[in-house]
Amino acid sequence: MAAIRCLHTRYFMYSRGIARTARCPHGCRESETEEHILWRCKVAQDIWLMISAFLTRLTGSAAMTLQSILFGPLQGLRSHQDRNAWRVINATKQTIWEIRNKKVFHKQDTPPIITARILPKCIKDYISLETHSLGKETANINWNITTLQGTFITPPNYQSAQPHLYQDSSILNPPHKQPGRDQEPSRCTRPLLQPCQLLDI
Ligand SMILES: [Zn+2]
């Protein structure tokens, strides 16, 4: 949904006059655009870092960019491992969005230890489906694992103590803050909708 610019972020809704704020729900002083919530946000960066070791083992690389996580790798999906990496990336985006919704609608934060349980569950579902259709041996080869324990993911507890890892990491290619993105966007002069009440989300 994000790839075609219709993810219902706060920015999307605010710019159409149907939300009270465009700010990221995780407390960032930036607008919640697709790019921000799925990639630039600190919460998203923690989750991408969390999944990077698994992707590295799967494809030999966890080099990701905003474009590659939105639209897929430029070289396409050339192998089973590439296709499975794309599934993992989509499961990760889905997890990031669900965590965002939990924050927006239930005012609840999701600790990294919980995220580290959610993500493997999504991945194990994919592996189980492939095991069912192709057999365990082929599925394990396609996922580059020996057992389902290969989907174990460690929460990045060390990050808050070592925030410089984000700046120095050459694995994730983390996004850099763009000037002006933290400014509240101006409202459209002609909103697409005429709401009777602004949504307090
Ligand atoms: Zn944010």
Notes on the protein architecture:
By secondary structure, the chain is mainly alpha-helical. It has a domain at 47-168. Helices cover 49% and strands 0% of the residues. The chain has 8 helices and no strands. The chain has helices at residues 10-14, 34-40, 42-59, 66-71, 80-106, 112-134, 136-143, 164-168. Helix 3 packs antiparallel against helix 5 and helix 3 (42-59) runs parallel beside helix 6. It is elongated, with a radius of gyration of 18 Å. Residues 158-198 have low confidence and may be disordered. The structure holds zinc ion (ZN).
Mean pLDDT across the residues is 76
Ligands present: zinc ion
Beta-strand portion reads under 5%
Radius of gyration: 18 Å
- Backbone structural class: mainly alpha
The run of helices and strands is HHHHHHHH
Counted beta strands: 0
Which bin fits the share of residues in helices? 40-55%
Keywords:
single chain; 201 residues; mainly alpha; 49% helix; elongated; binds zinc ion
Short description:
With 201 residues, the chain is an all-alpha fold. Helix content is 49%, strand content 0%.
Topology, please?
Layout: H1 10-14, H2 34-40, H3 42-59, H4 66-71, H5 80-106, H6 112-134, H7 136-143, H8 164-168
Bound molecules: zinc ion (ZN).
Zinc ion is lined by residues 24, 26, 28, 30, 36, 41.
